[in-house]
Amino acid sequence: MEHALSPATLTELRRPRPYPAVTVLTPTHRREPENAQDPVRLRNVVAEARKRLEHDPAVTRERRGDVVAQLEQALAEVDLAHTEEGLVIFAAPGEHQVWSLARPVPERVVLSDTFLTRNLVAAQAAERPFWVLSVSSDRVTLWNGGGGRVTEAHVGGFPLTRDRDNFDAERQERIGDLPSAFRDEGTRHFLRAADTALAGVLRTHDRPLYVTGETAALSLLDEIGTVTEDATRLPHGGLAHGTPEAVWQAVRPLVAAEDRRNLDTVARRLEAARGRKAFAAGVDEVRQNAREGRIELLAVEENYRTTVRADGGDGHLVPAESDDPDVREDIVDEIVEQCLNTGAEVRFVPDGALGDARGIAGVLRY
Questions:
Q1: Is 366 helix (H, G, I), strand (E, B) or coil?
Q2: Is the peptide bond before 159 cis (omega within 30 degrees of 0)?
Q3: What interhelical angle do 185-204 and 215-224 show, nearest 10?
Q4: 304 class by beta-carbon count within 10 Å (0-12 exposed, 13-18 middle, 19+ buried)
Q5: Taking the complete model, does pTM exceed 0.70, yes or no?
Q6: CA 129 distance to own-chain centroid
Q7: Could you report the per-residue pLDDT of 74-125, keeping only the tens digit for each?
Q8: Cβ distance 166 to 201 under 8 Å?
Q9: Among residues 255, 204, 236, 254, which one has the least CA distance to residue 134?
């Protein structure tokens, strides 16, 4: 199952495809007893997709057989023991993908000539992704962080390793048995290669960066590196060979501090926008401004969800029940994607942080 959404991957998902490109969404659960319902819901929503394909006169028999086979392959690849809050299946002639999201999605089947990406985009933004680069003299590991966890990243050639006669060099260095491993030319070349590899990753996956390692390692990387100037440094050895949990616990206070700074910044910008009449609040007002490309900063409370429908001819959104006709259950994710597409900043904030803004607010460009 896929987790990391890069700009290149998003562009590929959004390209036009031969009809039908099928998007299947279903909520999932991490824990018991809620996750007991997930297998049944998944089978039912895939069955609904098959039914839609069978009754669509625009889908030829050959295409229907191809896409149904792709749906069956996708279904076989789903590992419900490791799902998060939502599951998305994409299927089209000759291809399929399965995505696990850390953000809930509505149960839905969409047939179109492109895949529906708004839920992926919103989930990525909500996770506030970051990188952790852990450096040692014989291994450089890149960790993918976000959503309260880190996992080892296998991109850009990472992890980088280097054969050494003594793999316990860092321990001996700490107790004084070995001159610094970060003074020899071999280590300089090794870390320079790591810096180059990281530059390639950041070109396509630009995120905040934390760098961990022995003080000598961080100093050498500062001396020879080109892409870690703006990184947050953490003098903490051993994490290049560590576990994801150890890395997360080490960087967690730094991530929390950065989240607090971002929240303060968002609050100040929203308050200033109120003063100059460049402020929008509530899903209807924010959505109208997002469609016009007027949002400069969008703030959304982390668990804010609302179900709406368009009211009559004026197009304004009003509250609705999930079984109402033309209901829109993922309107918040739709707004997030619209704002990102027009170059807005999107910040997710703790529940209640927006006060009377009713879960969603924006700073306007004009």
A1: coil
A2: yes
A3: 70
A4: middle
A5: yes
A6: 6
A7: 999 999 988 899 999 999 999 999 999 988 999 999 999 999 999 999 998 8
A8: no
A9: 236
